[in-house]
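Running low. Invent one:
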Amino acid sequence: AMSAALVGYSSSEEEQQEEEEEAGSRGGGAQGTPGASAGRPRLPAPAGLLGDPDPEEAVSDDSSRHGGRVRGFPHERGNWATHVYLPYIAREEFLELLELLVSRARTYVPSLAAMEEFHLSLSQCVVLRYHWIEPFVRCLRERLAAFHRFFCVADQVKVYTNQNKTRTFIGLEVSAGHFQLLELVSEVDGVLEEFDLPTFYKDPSFHISLAWCVGDLSGRLEGQCLQELQDIVDGFEDSAFLLRIQWEQIRCKSGNKYFSFPLR
């Protein structure tokens, strides 16, 4: 039943759609335009960065095909949606906790669907031209090579919407490990600036998204619902052990290609 809204939408495109919108979800912090670094030749700006698509383009992207969601930017040949993140491998106990949270939250928002993959974003979803992928990944690899593994704790339930309010998420926000995450983002931002791409949000709320629904339903999920969800997390027997996460690798997804960067 969870995938009912996703019928007729190829899996890779469906995933890309989710990543684009999830990478745009945040808990606040306006996004400034990155300044061009002095002395470096400017690359031509990629077409159609995240934001409102052209009205004509928006019409051709039939939102009825994917659960009424609107693509953050028009899908164009040669443009590769690219996202840098920390993958979270869900254990059985985590899926049990997820099931408890989603079934409780559905009493407030019945259309809520659980995420099928879990990650913590280190970048927005940006657009790369095909021939930029290899140099972009090489650049990331160089900058991330010195990073060590670290722990963080993600145990605060929080409600997010994506930038254009077409989608609402329930996530687990990081309460410890924020500093290391900011250091990682600053390296990823450095790479994005070199390619003239938008950097991450200022003052980001780092989180792992658990569930989503179409539209801005944050009003229904905040307050009473949020408190009940937090009580479930706090009372879950494995939660202290479960939500203390050791990150072992960073991943970059570009279109349908995945690149991994192990932490030391």
Notes: The two ends are 41 Å apart (CA to CA). Residues 1-13, 27-71 have pLDDT under 50 and may be disordered.
